[in-house]
Structure formats: C-alpha cells, structure tokens
C-alpha cells in the first residue's frame, strides 16, 4: 500500500469522524436533541466518544474489506460498494429506530447516512489514478 493511498484513506476516515462529531455537536448541543438509545431493557446516552468510536470502527472495517477485495478481485470497487451500501441500509434499519424520541431517531439516521455516504464515496476513490482494480 502506498503512502498516498494510506494518506487518502486516512483523510477520508478523519473527514467522516469530523462530520459526525460536527453533526453531533450541532444537533445535540446547539439544537438540544437528547441523543439516547434503547438497548434491551436499558436506555443509554449517545456521547461524542461513542460517535467517534462508531465512526472509526465503521471506517476501518470498510477500509479493511476494501483492501482485501483489492487484492482478491479485479472488481473490488463494485463488490465493495455493493457490500457497503447493504451495510448502510442495514444500519439504517437497526440503528435509528432504537433512538428515544423523534429527534434522536432523526439525528441517528443523519449520522448513519452522512458517515456511510462519505465512506462509500471516499474510500474507493482515494486510490491513486491508474491503480484501480
């Protein structure tokens, strides 16, 4: 993996984290949305730390899958994009409905969508020109 590729994908990952934290700050702090989720029999608050960790985990998992696919197939972008879109849709079905209240559900949906779109559009395109598989 070249330095340009690493830097490009790291920048996409960092960008997704910055966007998620900014959205969280604007909607939670500035707009007063109480970001809480239900899991099993408990309710817990969504914190900025959990937003950062969830975004980083999603980005690194996507990056790892893309790297594996790039080594194994000539259609890595097609496969990766298909899988990434399916994972995003699944996350929208499972994540935001667990929000407590309409504001939390909408905020969670926005966070999932924005991070997903940034990663789906950015990670495969961070590969240097002429090096696509």
Automatic annotation (TrEMBL):
Transmembrane stretches, start-end: 7-26, 46-66, 78-94, 106-123
UniProt xrefs under InterPro entries: DUF6069 (IPR045713)
Protein's organism: Micromonospora trifolii
Name of the molecule in the record: DUF6069 family protein
Keywords, sorted A to Z: Membrane, Transmembrane, Transmembrane helix
One Pfam family per UniProt: DUF6069
Keyword Transmembrane helix (UniProt): yes
């Amino acid at each position: 993996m070249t330095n340009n590729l690493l830097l490009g994908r790291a920048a996409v990952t960092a960008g997704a984290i910055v966007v998620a934290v900014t959205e969280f700050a604007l909607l939670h702090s500035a707009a007063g949305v109480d970001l809480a989720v239900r899991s099993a029999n408990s309710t817990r608050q969504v914190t900025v730390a959990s937003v950062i960790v969830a975004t980083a985990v999603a980005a690194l998992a996507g990056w790892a899958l893309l790297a594996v696919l790039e080594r194994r197939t000539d259609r890595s972008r097609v496969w990766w994009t298909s899988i990434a879109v399916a994972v995003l849709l699944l996350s929208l079905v499972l994540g935001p409905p667990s929000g407590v209240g309409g504001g939390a559900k909408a905020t969670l949906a926005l966070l999932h969508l924005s991070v997903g779109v940034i990663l789906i559009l950015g990670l495969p395109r961070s590969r240097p020109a002429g090096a696509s598989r």
